[in-house]
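It is time I had a proper look at our fold encoding. Can you supply me with one protein entry, sequence and fold together? It will help me judge whether the discrete encoding reads sensibly. Leave the record below and I will have a look:
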Amino acid sequence: MRLEDKVRRLQEILLDCSRVAVAYSGGVDSSLLLKTALDTLGAGNVLPLFASSLLVTPADRERALSWPRRHGYGRGVVVEAVDLYPLSWKEFVRNPPERCYLCKFRVYSQFIAIMEKRGIRVLMDGTNTDDLKDRRPGLRAIHELGVRTPLVEAGLCKDDVRARSRELGLDTWQQPSSSCLATRLPHGMAVTEERLQQVARREQGLARLGFAGCRVRLDREDEGTAYVQVRQEDLERFLDQGMRMAVARLLGKEGVTRVYLDLAGR
């Protein structure tokens, strides 16, 4: 199916719903969904909801909330930040293998409660067809709660999303895929504020060295070990001797003595 046909199908799905809430993360997928919903249904019929918590960095929060302004929308379009406190969710803090399911169920349940008070019956999520190929426990919560995934329904894959986002002039079209900071902790390692901030500082430091979209994962047994993933296009630059030394100094200030690099990249 051609991209234009998929886009037309996406618009038809939105029109059938009339009024919707969009679970907006600030990423490329939910940005395209939000843009299409706003342009198809009008600002008064779209409620963008952003989950604000320690699981996202302040920079990511600002990027998400400033999306309407950056894309030329007036005061009538506001991404609503919903304050959440996942460190008070005991089952989440234990960090079991189903952590993402537990979190998504909590977050989207709160979104549904908010939107239903405003007479909105449909919550939409930016999952695309490529996401269905991976093991994503959060998808179970989406299905259980009856959340719509219109990008999937319209047949849009990740490349389609980026291509359409570029056509529309969205500044997110090349943005690396992202996930919450808790994904950097191995299952069974308790989720704490200190560990989340530790991950955020390390990734922000690498981003300043030019490695946007990197991941720095913790080791279950050794606080001095870090596992680094950078985008495939950044691997050669990371392996430069001078850059390796710069990374070692940067992470060394965080107490890291051993750095393991994923040679496959992101």
Notes: The two ends are 28 Å apart (CA to CA). The mean pLDDT is 95. The beta strands are 20-23, 46-52, 80-83, 123-124, 215-218, 225-229, 258-261.
